[in-house]
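Title: Prediction job returns without error message
Component: structure pipeline
Severity: low
Priority: P3
Assignee: unassigned

Description:
Job completed but the reporter wants confirmation the result is attached to the right record. Sequence as submitted:
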Amino acid sequence: MQDYEYLLSSLDKIKGIGNKTIQLFLRKKIKTIFDLLWHLPISKIETSKTTDIKDLQLGKTQSIKLTPLKYNFPRVRKLPNKVNCMSSGEKIDCIFFNSYEGYIKKILPINQEVIVFGKIGYYKAKYQITNPKLISETEDGVIKDIKNYSLTEGLTITKYNKIIEDVFKAIPTLKEWHNEKLLKKFNNARWNESIKKIHSYDYEKLKNSHYLRRLIFDEIFANFLISSQIRLKIKKIKKKKKLFNDQIKNKYLQKLEFELTVDQKNAIKDIEKDLKSKERMFRLIQGDVGSGKTIVSLISALNTIKSGYQVAFMVPTEILAKQHFNFSSNFFDSSIKIELLSGKVDYSNKKKIIKDLENKKIDLIIGTHSLFQKKIKFKKLGLIIIDEQHKFGVNQRKELSEKGGNDCDVLVMSATPIPRTMMMTIYGDMDITLIKDKPKNRKEIKTYSKLDSKINEIINFANKEIQNGNQIFWVCPLIEKSNKLDQQSAVEKNKFLQKYFNNRVGLIHGSIEKDKKNKVLNDFLNKKIDVLVSTTVIEVGIDFPNATVIVIENANKYGLSQLHQLRGRVGRGNKESTCILIFNSNLSQNAKKRINILKNLSDGFDISEEDMKLRGYGDILGFKQSGLKKFKLADPILHRDLFELAETEVKKIEINNSSLGNYYKLLKLYDRASIINDII
């Protein structure tokens, strides 16, 4: 057995662990010995330090010196056993669940002073300790502190500590996978030494230690290394080069009423380089709301079509698909055949579109999930564009890309700005291009905060905007009114606003049927209604250039990234736009911070970083829902330097075309996903 294979062994390798205990560990997703070691202590129980009864803290695990006085063993099995005790002249009870009388008598002998530890509670005017554990001296007369772990019911802290000690006695010394030069950055902390230290020390004291930083780096490095191998695997797939005609491209660009930004031009260069290459493109265009990703994607589509290929353009909603279809139809001339495929297309037309795709009579197909259907086949698919990619799962993207074979390039786009460290984590298998600057004609959205008592002022302002020919978004956190939550509902707000805006108010939310929702959105797009009341369903993708004001009720209930996304629904044209954040007077300090940040910042990437500082990376828009595994220790904000170091080291391996060699065990330990089998 190789040194690391012991760590990947099942728990039955550990002495004294039977099937019952294994089932308890599975509740904590602990399957292997490595999982066990990677389940870190949350605190240290200072068993050597007793607490006086008057200083006990409810809910905390503490040690106390007491004297048992009387046993209370009820005849009814389900009732707990109780031992009445005294400590410093005051009464305290020891409560036992599922414990035998013999065991209780052994650890708590009557009239003998003992030290126990357990979780402190309070019941019927006196303290109690639930399932206390006896603290005893070691052979050398020393009382050891005990590490506290988050455990499922049925597993005791003492038993877990004993298991951990047994594992450390049996664990082999792993041969290091890092070179000595890199290890010096962590004060030569070895893996074996590091994992033992973080189980033996007070975790709080370890936050800036070399041992902890070494393990955090390994976790990040393993993640990046896998992404790198996937990326290299994709690049090994050889394809036919796409051909280009700059004259044709420039002809279409001249039709635009605006000049491309520097970032848009650079994005087109990146994509053209990929399309001209023999290596398959797998690129993400990461751009803030309103940064002009769509025009970049259409130029990419143009180059591909003129090279003799078809293009599939997939979006998450029918209304967005229709918008892209209309824009593309106006942008391209009749030489490029464009079709729309969605659930709204009737059967006969759908049948014709499917046939035309297979016969290459369609150059550009724009659609929703309909493009996934097995019956849809392409004659010569050369490029897949996926808009708002976080709305689609990895498997869906994979399915679509496989329709084109090896000659098919993939371009995905996202309007959800995230900090670079997180981008490296989520999209590490892709080449990334950022579009940060906005079109020159776009004006900054003015952002204000208003108390909910100022509603009449907001309505008067909205009325003036409507009189000037503009439209209003009005966003609420709830669909229906709730007795439990003091938040505005879209249904109630719609009724309220009807009387102020001459019944030219529309309502959409997640529970409305798709057809009805699309009708309301189309009515708003065609200016049949002036105010659109909604929940956050309008958050992503839809472009309404005539909307100049967005009012967000209970703005304190949203995260920063989500507020920024909502704000980006206005300011899509060349008119001055406004975002009004409504809140009540009873705001938390955190909510005040979020609102002030949004008022002072306009760059989505800066905002997302502040959001991550406030809420943690796991809760950022789109990440939690992505199904990606969270890091155990690494934090993209706190450990930015380690993320950058990991990126540098992985690039060295790529550049030198180094064999993974020792890194195989690292990958096996830190990420046992099936992808490893594909890349090693």
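Comment from assignee: result matches the submitted record. The radius of gyration is 31 Å.
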